[in-house]
Known about the structure:
This protein is mainly beta and 163 residues long. It contains 1 helix and 12 strands; from the N terminus they run ββββββββββββα.
Amino acid sequence: MELYFRDNFFNAGYTEIMNQEQEQVGHLDLKSAFGSSIDVFAPSGLICSGKFRMLTNRWDVTSQDGSHWGVLRARLSFFSKKYEYDAGPRGVYEVSAPAFSQEYEITGMGGRTVASFRRTSGWFSSGAFVLHNDSEQLNTYELIAVVMGVHAINKRRNSANST
């Protein structure tokens, strides 16, 4: 299943989650222009949330009841973009892309690709993504929170480098 979703210019408000047929299958609540926290909704309601841990660059993903699903963190790499998503007993996943690419792979134990996403242009405005999930362990809406975490870490990194 492929899902399309996006950030918006002010990092606040609601944006749609769409499927390949351009039907709305959920939405993101970008909670504040002054922070990066998000809520991910399916048609049935809130599925999960993502936000930075206090004073760190780690992105926490929690379920609707507040239980911890995983944590995303950037890993040091010189010729590629690398992140690690620790989903606890469900495994540790590597999120990576070549240095100047906007196409990421999410690999599990043994290097098997379980999902992929890419930043798109055209159909959506900047900060738009398409996600393809083949994972049996990770929920697609959870992966939307992970993708938005990668995006938030990249925005923080770019902001720090521009000052």
